Amino acid sequence: MQVEIIPAVLPKSFKDLEEHLLRIKGAVKTAQIDVVDGSFAHNKTWPYKDAASFERIVAEEHGLPLWDELDFQFDLMIDNPAERIMDFVHAGASQIILHAKSAGAADALQQLVDLREEGGAFSIKAGLAILPDSQPEELERFEAQFDFVQVMGIARVGFQGEPWDKRALYLLERLRRRYPGLPLQVDGGVSMDNAQALAKAGANRLVAGSAIFKADDPVQAIADLKAEANRI
Prior knowledge:
Helix 1 (14-23) links the parallel strand 1 and strand 2 (30-36). The chain has an 8-stranded parallel beta barrel with strand order 1-2-3-4-5-6-7-8, surrounded by 6 helices. The protein is 31% helix and 19% strand. The protein has a single domain (4-229), classed as TIM Barrel (Alpha-Beta Barrel). By secondary structure, the protein is an alpha/beta fold.
């Protein structure tokens, strides 16, 4: 299977999210929305800013931008995600990523597992994110709860444009040996300079923000990253 490119948006508001997604319209099937609460990481994004627009989406009074064209990953860089996770379920998430270092991550992951087991009303994939200095053994306490793993390519999460952390590459290689069939994605610091190396190390998906949205032509940037990642 080819390596998939997933654009990541760190939105300041609903309008900002919409503007970013319109720039990649038709280019991808999945987009990641980075959610930062200002506590887990020292930044704050939508919906912790502009909360009213998110509440309308949760109440199904409004939809996410391009909801009929895109699947959405919500990357929850928040503390105590179990308290809010159902809001993101009802907002239309196809995949939800929890961070292993977040307090209560295991409880939130279990909620997603329980949703699938209770009649299959929700088929939301659960991802677990770990930092580049992590060890594969950190995943053991979450076994049987996650569907994929996200390796962070940066040491300071919650921001875009952070420097690439090469330790992520070595972690990715170790995870691929340990979990031969598990989907693995890398988020943070992804660029044309490392896309091929990440794919060779075992990444199935590359999540990119700055490399796409700081380009003059985001759609072309996605195509270029995909071509480079699959040149193996």
